[in-house]
Amino acid sequence: MDFQEAIYTQFAQSFEAQQQALESLPPYIEHAAKVIFNSIASGGKIVCIGNSTGSHLSQYFSTLMLDRMDRERPGLPAINLSGDGSAILAITHNDSYHDVFSKQITALGNPGDILFVVANRGNTSPIIQAIQAAHERKMSIVALTSPEAKNVSSLTSQDDTEIKINLLGTARVHECQLSVIHILIDLLERQLFGCED
What we know:
5-stranded parallel sheet, 197 residues
């Protein structure tokens, strides 16, 4: 195996995936940034969840919200439900694994808050129940998905925003989702703090 060729192929595939995302996603990303801005400007917060490796991306998004990316600025209200191991274990033990997010959303979510979901598998019941609980709490959904997350897509309403990475392959999907997260943070900072390059 030629490692140099393999490296070149990986970069080339990544560039191609980013180009494809650039051609289709900007309107959805812009809409999501405006929805998140409106929630924060009205005193709401962003509640983040994810399944599988999407849980790491959701945690990364909440970290960038609470801290910052490149610009010095105040923290923004966000909480990541995927990272509270004690709560997840307690809910799984006392109730059900399917309730690990929905029970927390019912307790913490308020009307006007946003549920930020990174879902790359559609049949994960905790994600499905979380979206249903968020709708019951009058929360809007911003979902980063892939073609495999069909159940998540079917649950989003006209008040929700789905940013679907229409690609196959875990690495390419995650790379594009990471770019979307960085762009969302940049757009939020521009709206909230008038940040310029």
